[in-house]
Specification:
The complex is a heterodimer. Chain A is mainly α. Chain A is built from seven helices and two strands; from the N terminus they run αααααββαα. In chain B, strands 1, 2, 3, 11, 12, 13, 14 and 22 form an eight-stranded mixed sheet that branches. Chain B has a six-stranded antiparallel sheet with strand order 8-16-17-18-15-21, covered by helices on one side. A four-stranded mixed sheet of chain B has the order 5-4-20-19, covered by helices on one side. The chains are: A mainly alpha, B alpha/beta.
Chain lengths: ~250, ~600
């Protein structure tokens, strides 16, 4: 609730109360702005896989009155890049056998890389439940809910393991830096009030209760320009381009 | 056929915190030292620089600074009746790799243990009687006391430049510091870090309940500091990317910032990276090490002869190295005989979430790795256990270190795991939640231990280390008690909902809890229950010293790094002042 000490900072911070961090971005408007204008170019997903992923993530983190969802944030593009790259092929995954079913405490024990896990499971789902993408949102939610607790074998992958993997990766894509393909224009960070890669809070940490409304910073903003370019300019002080940085610290 | 190199005076296994300190002390003593590091060379500039370092996905989730588990990992089971399976993705604890080791990605919480921790068996017998806990508990004395280690704690803390406030200067209690700590010979090198909002709320609530809150000692520095090695550290910016990350600001004490620049310039020191040590070699008597054999980056087998071998790997890897090298008798839980791998313990942590109204901005992203406010009223034996039925304790504090949203997006219980309700709860809670940390001790038992896995191997064909661990009943009781005390404080912090999560069985490798894996190469005064004597020297092979948290006979309430650093200086002192004059056993 503290006002900033210097007038020059007033344009960056406003007192809490009238508007919380979450409402600093006109959420519904942003959601419309960030809907993809054209279909993604996928490196890993085939069209049937992409259709399933797009439909599923749109329900896992839906667009609603709090703001854009996973689809608007570009989570399918994030998942596609991750699966096409090192993580998809088993980065940091110990892959020697023998393979045995373990206890929950022993963690992941399937022989599949993430590429294999997603591909096997989505193939089976599309074969058996191909109408998923066409269902009404409430029906899609019921189906996803059933997957969450299902032991159905999806090409060797238990349905619950696939669901957990998809949900975890969707949340990663929603909240990770836009440089990875999701969280487009930092929509998820703006929604919760996370400043992103910004590094200097020395002068602010003891301004207890401060309503920090400065725009977040992405890895892509190191002088080489923004990675995501949108034709419609943002409105509102909190998202004005380049205007949201906290001042340089004085030592 | 191995290539045999010329003999060196000393070979270091691992160039992390321990290797850097021993390398410095032994080159200063005029010895030629070769440091073998399995990972990459890496430095604050350019390797830890922003903004690339501030990538939560790359460093926190994909764990870029950690051991490459495609090549080597650990196997795990909760009990010896189960079949251990490999930890295929490392999650529960995070051993680092590369120059500087895990002291690059640590948080900087820098704590001294209590005398009652070092003398745990004697102290418990004196205060509570020999029959207080059952025979399955194998806690024991370290062979050193707090008074022995105080000068070495002091030296290590002045190397790091630790920011804190003394609460006990030579017996004189100082309000606002940790009045329950053991006496220290002088104050911290630098004053405490600033106190974040949630920590301030904790302080007021804890004071109101009659406890003794104080700033957590932090190796994220409160102001610029030049250490006795001539290295200058800078002020921490509270960037919120500390643990799991390297520090771009020269503000977190690490081998790179406090000692490596001096060591690497020393002509008596040679650093070799990408060297995977396979074993310590012994002579035909088995009582003298002749050096080590490693595989270099090109896959060639190299023999490095050495007069003195210092094993300073990550704690679990110290144990594995002795087992692979056949130094000391492996522990057998069935008979209770043997020592290597005996007394594996961990850290018993839990949490309490405090959900505030939306007008309370906690700003969890304005944090350093080790900032925050804690109480020591329930640490170690600072409170009477006579009617509690357990030993050990925990510090309780508001010591949040970040607000990185993939890892941190708390929601109240009952919230769905996904969908619109989940999303609304995340948005509603993110900036308005404070988390209390209960950081507790871990007692040793007959059943928890480490040995070599019979089935799974690393990329070089060597057996993986097998971990057998479950939370002992003692620690489950301790966690319940200390989490209750934290909940009392949390309720006084003014939130609208308080959600405690005491530690429960089973121990799982799938949830990050702590990288404080301890024991397995225990130090002590009785060679039937320890691998090392009180100077961290192998009982069986006296030209091998082992230093790390693997030396702890059981784990205390506090974070281990300060004690590991103190042991490094303690052992270095014994080597330089005693061993070099007369190489041989320093204790009998």
């Amino acid at each position: 609730m503290n006002e900033p000490a210097r007038p020059s900072r007033r344009r960056f911070f406003k007192a809490a109360g009238a508007a919380g961090v979450a409402s600093a971005v006109p959420a519904a408007a942003s959601a419309q702005q960030h809907a993809p204008a054209h279909a993604e170019t996928y490196l890993f997903f085939n069209p049937a896989e992409a259709a399933f992923i797009e439909a599923a993530v749109a329900r896992l983190i839906p667009k609603d009155e709090t703001g854009p969802g996973a689809m608007e944030a570009g989570v399918p593009a994030y998942l596609d890049r991750q699966l096409a790259g090192a993580w998809g092929t088993g980065e940091r995954l110990y892959r020697s056998g023998p393979w045995r079913e373990g206890t929950p405490s022993q963690g992941y024990q399937l022989p599949f890389t993430p590429q294999e896990l997603f591909r096997n499971a989505i193939r089976a789902l599309n074969e058996r439940h191909g109408d998923f993408v066409k269902l009404a949102p409430q029906e899609q939610d019921k189906f996803l809910d059933s997957l969450h607790s299902s032991k159905e074998d999806l090409g060797g992958v238990p349905a619950s393991v696939f669901f957990e993997s998809l949900l975890e990766a969707t949340i990663e894509g929603f909240f990770s830096d836009p440089a990875h393909g999701g969280n487009r224009d930092m929509v998820a960070w703006k929604m919760i009030g996370f400043p992103g890669a910004y590094a200097d809070f020395y002068e602010l940490v003891d301004q207890h209760g401060l309503a920090y409304n400065s725009a977040p910073t992405s890895l892509a903003e190191d002088g080489r320009g923004r990675i995501h370019i949108h034709p419609v300019a943002h409105t509102g002080a909190s998202s004005s381009a380049g205007g949201g940085r906290a001042p340089a610290k004085e030592r | 056929m191995a290539t045999r190199l010329p003999e060196t005076d000393v070979v270091l296994l691992g160039v992390g915190l321990v290797g850097s300190i021993l390398g410095r002390e032994l080159t200063k003593a005029g010895l030629k030292v070769v440091g073998l590091e399995r990972g990459e060379p890496r430095y604050t500039v350019p390797d830890f620089q922003g903004p690339a370092m501030h990538d939560e996905l790359r460093y926190s989730v994909r764990k870029s600074l950690m051991v490459d588990t495609t090549k080597e990992t650990y196997t795990f089971r909760n009990a010896s009746s189960e079949t251990a399976l490999p930890i295929r993705r490392i999650q529960g604890f995070l051993p680092g790799t590369g120059l500087g080791g895990s002291a690059v990605h640590w948080n900087g919480q820098t704590w001294r243990f209590h005398d009652a921790d070092f003398r745990m068996r004697s102290h418990a017998n004196e205060r509570y009687g020999r029959e207080f806990l059952g025979l399955e508990y194998q806690f024991q004395d370290w062979g050193v006391t707090y008074a022995d280690l105080e000068p070495y704690y002091d030296r290590f803390e002045y190397l790091l430049g630790v920011s804190g406030k003394a609460g006990n200067l030579g017996g004189k209690k100082i309000p606002g510091g940790n009045v329950l700590e053991e006496p220290r010979s002088r104050d911290y090198p630098t004053p405490p870090q600033k106190e974040p909002y949630g920590s301030a709320l904790f302080r007021k609530a804890a004071e109101g309940l009659g406890y003794h809150p104080f700033p957590q000692p932090s190796s994220n520095l409160s102001r610029p500091y030049t250490n006795p090695e001539g290295q200058t550290l800078q002020t921490c910016m509270f960037c919120g990317y500390c643990e799991r990350y390297g520090c771009e600001h020269f503000a977190k004490s690490s081998p790179q910032t406090v000692i490596l620049p001096v060591l690497l310039k020393d002509r008596n020191f040679t650093l070799r990276t990408h060297c995977q040590v396979q074993r310590v070699n012994l002579d035909s008597s088995g009582k003298q090490a002749t050096g080590v054999t490693y595989i270099d980056a090109k896959g060639q087998e190299i023999e490095q002869p050495a007069k003195l071998v210092i094993v300073g790997l990550f704690a679990l890897n110290n144990v594995r190295m002795l087992l692979l090298s056949k130094i000391g008798e492996p522990y057998d839980p069935a008979s209770g005989r043997g020592v290597v791998g005996r007394n594996y313990s961990y850290q018993t942590t839990s949490g309490v979430n405090v959900f505030f109204d939306e007008k309370v901005n906690i700003n969890p992203f304005m944090r350093s790795g080790a900032c925050g406010t804690v109480i020591a009223d329930f640490v170690s034996d600072n409170f009477d256990h006579a009617k509690l039925g357990f030993l050990g304790g925990a510090y309780i504090g508001e010591v949040m270190s970040h607000g990185r949203p993939i890892e941190f997006h708390p929601v109240p219980p009952g919230t769905p795991a996904w969908g619109s309700e989940w999303k609304k709860a995340v948005v509603r809670s993110y900036n308005h939640t404070s988390v209390l940390n209960i950081h507790g001790s871990s007692i040793t038992t007959r059943a928890n231990y480490l040995d070599l896995d019979p089935t799974y191997r690393d990329a070089w064909g060597q057996p993986l280390l097998r971990m057998t661990f479950e939370f002992p009943e003692n620690d489950v009781k301790m966690s319940a008690f200390c989490t209750d005390r934290a909940t009392d404080i949390a309720k006084a912090m003014g939130g609208r909902q308080v959600v405690p999560s005491p530690r429960k069985r089973p121990y799982t490798t799938t949830q990050y809890q702590s990288t404080h894996n301890t024991g397995g190469t225990v130090m002590g005064e009785d060679r039937s229950t320890s691998v090392l004597n009180r100077f961290c020297q192998s009982w069986d092979v006296p030209n091998v010293f082992v230093i790390g948290a693997s030396n702890f006979p059981q784990n205390a309430s506090y974070n281990p790094t300060d004690t590991v650093g103190a042991l490094a200086y303690w052992a270095a002192d014994a080597i330089v002042k005693q061993y070099l004059k007369s190489p041989g056993p320093l204790a009998t």
